[in-house]
Amino acid sequence: MVMVKPMPKKTKVKPVRIGREEAKERLIQSTIALLESGKLDDLLVDAITEHAGLASGHVLVHRYFGSRLELLSEVAHRLAAQLVEGLNSDLETFQDVSVRPVDYVGSFARHTGIIRKRALVINELALHGASPALHSQDTRKILDSLQQIFELVEVPSRAARATALNMLTLVSVEVTLSDWMGVTAEERDDLRALTRVELGFASQISKLLGWE
Description:
There is one protein chain. By secondary structure, the chain is mainly α. The protein has 2 domains: 17-66; 68-208. It contains 10 helices and no strands. Helix 4 (68-94) runs antiparallel to helix 6 and helix 4 (68-94) runs parallel beside helix 7.
């Protein structure tokens, strides 16, 4: 008689239990990471929770944020805070360094990734009817920080504000509407070049407009 050895029992791997705050942070950071692709499809709950390594994603998102849109809203706030922190770091640096307005464009470029991500999230929220008031204060803080930098490099106050708004709008619109407008890569480069020239002559333009 042939003895058949019993098959070893498979041990079921239990999911790792994590706390509320860690789960929330994972969801926020996973959403930010997925924004790298620039595709709104990557912002679906299943994609976010899979990236975060969390089971029962819809349940967790609802439990911790209320809805997917509330999660995206929190992400937008987080990105705005990171951007303001980076701009304020620039402000501290330029207080000790002599720099022309046009020179700042190169430094500003390192912030465009965050601006693009935030613009994608804000656009998604707007498409679903979110109130602009939810994030307008964050935008004002970003503009305030940019304006202070341009004032530091001797751009008049009104022109500094307009320049800050111009640069923030340029990056935001580029990521959200360029494809819809059929803008080519060459046209985008031309727009950036024109913006750099405008920035270099911000003080002169301010005088021509009678802002001083």
